[in-house]
Design a protein that fits this description.
Elements lengths: L2 H14 L6 H12 L6 H18 L1 H18 L3 H30 L3 H21 L10 H12 L8 H11 L4 H28 L7 H29 L2 H18 L1
Helix pairs in contact: 1-2, 1-3, 1-10, 3-9, 3-10, 4-5, 5-7, 5-9, 6-8, 6-11, 7-8, 8-9, 9-10
């Protein structure tokens, strides 16, 4: 990889991981549209580690309190709001984790195409627009156990390129009556165990491959992905109540339309 590829792909991953526009779709499309060779598994692992570092750093207080509350509950301390939120995150992770183990290889073979991405980008973009119109004012503290399960089931759909993990979880949360910022916050917290699981699986795949590793490229990709993802989370949470999801829906429709023109 050239440094232009490293910089561009790391920024693409960092910016798109937490926006409702699908990072996996962009990491597939950028090399295709620019005529580059696929960046490879090692680089995908590196930029996902960067995204994980960013979300852990940004929500460090939440992660610390939720982890402490959950351990306190596990030791018999009784249910508390932090433990409840932690268990909701665990519950919401299970469907996507199981779906990834069962269908990851099939999806990698059959669904990584520009036309699939076009369809999911447009379809789930329109669903996000409709969900935003149905939103309520519920916060994460008002969530029920079934809310966590429904959002988790929606997250499993994000294995299909173009769906967007953050987009589909925010969509589900909005349809359940949550407010914009609460939906985004729960979506970001839900990303932590899933990125850990996905990164772990990709790392196992990587260890089985007998290929040389460009450590400078991996380190550069990790750092750039982390910095851009951190900035993206901060700006998104600060602006989402003012601007809503309409700009992201418009972007998804434009991107899906362009892909249909190019690949139909």
């Amino acid at each position: 990889m050239t440094w232009l590829q490293i910089i561009l792909l790391a920024l693409v991953q960092g910016i798109t991981e937490f926006l409702p526009i699908s990072s996996s779709a962009h990491l597939i499309l950028v090399p295709v549209l620019l005529g580059w060779q696929d960046q490879g598994l090692a680089f995908d692992v590196a930029v996902h580690v960067g995204s994980l570092i960013a979300v852990l750093a940004y929500f460090r207080r939440d992660v610390w309190s939720v982890t402490g509350g959950t351990f306190s509950w596990a030791r018999g301390g009784g249910m508390n709001p932090e433990a409840r939120l932690g268990l909701l995150v665990v519950l919401g992770t299970i469907p996507a984790g199981l779906a990834g183990l069962l269908f990851k290889d099939w999806i990698e073979v059959y669904l990584r195409s520009p036309l699939v991405i076009a369809a999911t980008t447009i379809g789930f973009g329109l669903l996000l627009w409709w969900a935003d119109r149905q939103r309520g004012e519920r916060d994460t503290g008002d969530m029920r156990w079934m809310d966590g399960l429904w959002i988790g089931l929606a997250q499993a759909l994000a294995l299909i390129p173009g769906t967007s993990r953050s987009g589909i979880t925010m969509t589900a949360a909005l349809l359940l009556g949550m407010g914009r910022e609460a939906a985004a916050r729960f979506s970001f917290l839900l990303a932590i165990p899933l990125i850990l699981l996905a990164g772990g699986l990709k790392t196992l795949d990587l260890l089985e491959m007998d290929t040389p590793v460009d450590w400078a490229a991996l380190l550069g990709g990790t750092v750039l992905s982390a910095l851009s993802a951190y900035a993206c989370i901060h700006l998104f949470l600060g602006a989402i109540n003012r601007m809503g999801f309409a700009p992201f829906v418009a972007y998804r429709l434009a991107l899906g339309g362009l892909l249909l023109v190019l690949f139909l």
